[in-house]
Write a structure and sequence with these properties.
Layout: E1 15-20, H1 23-34, E2 41-46, H2 53-64, E3 79-82, E4 87-92, E5 115-120, E6 134-140, E7 146-151
Parallel strand pairs: 2-5, 2-6, 4-5
Antiparallel strand pairs: 1-7, 3-4, 6-7
Helix pairs in contact: 1-2
């Protein structure tokens, strides 16, 4: 029995909720989203441990033309940049307290006009400084399945 294809988001599209059945499908969804990016986008990722946030960032890297094989959870590094036609800045705030200590990372200076910023554990941001963000919620929906909800920024 074949599954329906993963939706192909386009800029300005609302993807209410999609179930992916593997890390590869989660990456495919993110890559499709990233292909519409032009620079300056911020993606805030929410979800419990193991929900697929890093897999989603690997997909963003693929869609932006960066090497997805380089993407790993930057839990101990906190912030990593992956070069490509648009630089993917990848932050992981898991180890932060959420009391404003992320300010020392300089995230408010990112992503810049030629970059994209993806932040795992975005709920730890005290006050997100960006006016327009893509919010992505990932939830366990079975053994390898994930429910992915993408809230795109308004006009």
């Amino acid at each position: 029995m074949s599954r329906p294809p993963v939706p192909n988001p386009r800029p300005g599209a609302l993807i209410p909720s999609v179930v992916t059945h593997s890390a590869a499908e989660t990456e495919q969804l993110a890559a499709s989203l990233a292909r519409g990016f032009r620079g300056g986008e911020v993606v805030l990722l929410h979800g419990e441990l193991g929900a697929g946030k890093t897999a989603f960032v690997r997909g963003l890297a693929r869609g932006l033309g960066s090497d997805p094989g380089e993407v790993a959870s930057p839990t101990f590094v906190l912030l990593t940049a992956y070069p490509g036609p648009l630089t993917l800045h990848h932050a992981d705030l898991y180890r932060l307290a959420g009391n404003g200590d992320e300010g020392e990372l300089g995230l408010e200076e990112l992503p810049g006009p030629r970059g994209v910023l993806a932040i795992e554990w975005a709920e730890r941001l005290a006050d997100p400084p960006w006016p327009r963000v893509h919010r992505v919620r990932l939830e366990h929906a079975g053994e390898d399945a994930r429910r992915v909800t993408i809230e795109e920024p308004g006009p």
